[in-house]
Amino acid sequence: MKLRDQFRFVRQNMKKNKTRVFMTILATAMGCAFLIVLASVGFGLQKSVVKEMLEQRIVTQIDVHGKEVKDGGFRPINIKDIQVLEKVGKVKAVTRKIMLQQESTYKIGNYQEGAETYVSHFPSEVKAGFELSEGRLPKTENEVVVGYDFPLNLGTTDEVEDLYDNKGHVKKKYRYPENLIDKKLDLTVKQLKNGKHVEKKLQLTVVGIGKKPTREWMQDRSVFISDQVLKEIESFTGTPNGAILGPDEPQQQNPETNERIYDEVKIYAKNMEAVQGIVDQLKDKNYATYSVVNELKEINMVFTIAKAGLIFIGTIAILIASIGIYNTMTMAVTERAPEIGIMKAIGANPKTIKRIFLLESSYIGLIGAVIGTIVSYGISYAVNFSIPLIIKQAFGEEMPAGLTFSDIPLILPIICIVICYVVTIISGYRPAQRAVKVDVLKALRREV
């Protein structure tokens, strides 16, 4: 008997018992839908967590915190280390910053703002993707670039109530009204002399404003000064990076070489695939690093275990449905005993008879799996739409923006169909074996 004829024979037999076959397919579809929807929660939450991480951090970024020394401690990164880091393969840029070690106050007319002040290496920053919303990069030592939110927080020195808006910026009516480009800011720095604070003002010109941060809740109020300005501040304070020492604190010094040490060093890989290789090379060179890729590995491992557990639980539902398939196929063998007897009497191969019943059980399982997959997509959409509304109505809280509660990647239906197919083959194997063993004479007398 040809395979095409076997399929035709299977479909004819299924039509004879439409109700029983329908209920069996329905049970299988419910089991598959349960498995997919249950596992989709793990996939959905993983997608949301990973997306949140990648939006907050640049995935090609590697933070370098220091280098391990012989005694087991770590020393800060210096210019020699920067040169080593820049020579590592597949490195796009190495950015470095030095932070002014005192509170910085900037003033223009009747407006002022406190901000963090850095010395930054702009050529490497540009390679890493630094952009301006307006203006240009500094060309002379007294020119500075400010963060995007700096102009939005340059507020009046007058005492006013309710100075800030709901976004954490100074309200427009209290804010410096003009464009800051080419305007001169006074930076006030201090030192402690004879127990008293002595101030010095440095006049700086704003030539550029940084690009808006990618996240709404982030604020960039930094000011980037030149290394020459930092040296002028150090000359005034007598301390590295302009630190203010207490009356009893000893004078701080840089290392013997009097070289610069950096407070913040970041490496940017050419692509995400290169990150792990760079991290491994830096580890061999005794550098302490952190990358979001390391964190992603741990999170993915946790979610992989969770998804495997959910798939295992969902498989139980398919196993329960397999009982129905076994029962359906057992009854089919009993009812078709005369047909089996006739097939054997005319010389049908036992393997052909077994294949027919295995085809029927597979047919039922695969139809149920396909229907269950289609239904699960509908349930997943409904869950993602309704859960935020239910939580808002029941608990009065908003779900985090972009949270995906259920997500069904292509691999999940494939896993479900494979599991369902294996289970249905196992369920139909015993009845198929029984069909092969049917006695011809008894079968023709309608007895099994």
Automatic annotation (TrEMBL):
Keyword Acyltransferase assigned: no
Record-annotated MacB-like periplasmic core domain positions: 22-232
InterPro entries, per database record: ABC3_permease_C, MacB_PCD, Macrolide_Exporter_MacB
Principal location listed in the UniProt entry: membrane
Subcellular localization: Cell membrane
Domain ABC3 transporter permease C-terminal stretches: 311-430
Keywords assigned: Cell membrane, Membrane, Transmembrane, Transmembrane helix
TM ranges: 21-45, 301-326, 363-390, 410-429
A Pfam family matched in the record: MacB_PCD
Bilayer disposition of the protein: Multi-pass membrane protein
Record-stated family: Belongs to the ABC-4 integral membrane protein family.
Name used for this protein in its record: ABC transporter permease YtrF
Species whose genome carries this gene: Neobacillus kokaensis
High-level lineage: Bacteria, Bacillati, Bacillota, Bacilli, Bacillales
